[in-house]
Prior knowledge:
- The complex is a heterodimer.
- Chain A contains no helices and eleven strands.
- Chain A is an all-beta fold.
- In chain A, strands 2, 4, 5, 6, 9, 10 and 11 form a seven-stranded mixed β-sheet that branches.
- Chain B is 0% helix and 52% strand.
Amino acid sequence: xxxxxxxxxxxxxxxxxxxxLECVQDMDHENMFWYRQDPGLGLRLIYFSYDxxxxxxxxxxxxxxxxxxxxxxxxxxxxxxxxxxxxMYLCASSFPSGAISSYNEQFFGPxxxxxVL
Amino acid sequence: xxxxxxxxIHITVSEGASLExxxxxxxxxxxxxxxxxxxxxxxxxxxxxxxxxxxxxxGIKGFEAEFKRSQSSFNLRKPSVHWSDAAEYFCAVxxxxxxxxxxxxxxxxxxx
Lengths: 117, 112
């Protein structure tokens, strides 16, 4: 089974702190994603990576950056955390586009609930 | 670009009753369609998916969904709900590239 793990389930940080959220997948997936989830808004894509050191902005990248130095690991960075970044953060991974076995299916981690005070 | 609408924000159903969650999508070609479930405090788990072929798709936990191209819908159903089905449900559509577009979700409450 695909396993996507996230470094923390719950995290509390202070305004202005630099925050790192880590995600690791064990299925050799090329694609990895970071979403944030807020009530009534569903999942919104923050950043996407389709290969090591490659990244693309999603729908709401402002205030975030990402790092992918190894295929299995994708990190989300909040350079200076703000209270409006309090949210649930979900990491996902998938096979590359066009792969017969993929058809966009994404596999999700358990999420990190971040509170910024 | 594709998009998804889940018209019902919240549904309450009695245990043992049937459940139907609505999903409408917008996409010009044949979409790839998914239903995910999220239990409280958890990540998303795939319930079922539709790529092609039979328009009635069976999933895990006794769920099924029907793809209706003429109505641009992919509604999720379960004949008899269990208390453990209380969760948030997300419909998603893919266009064959990397991206999935998610609906806003429907929260299901199960009363005894």
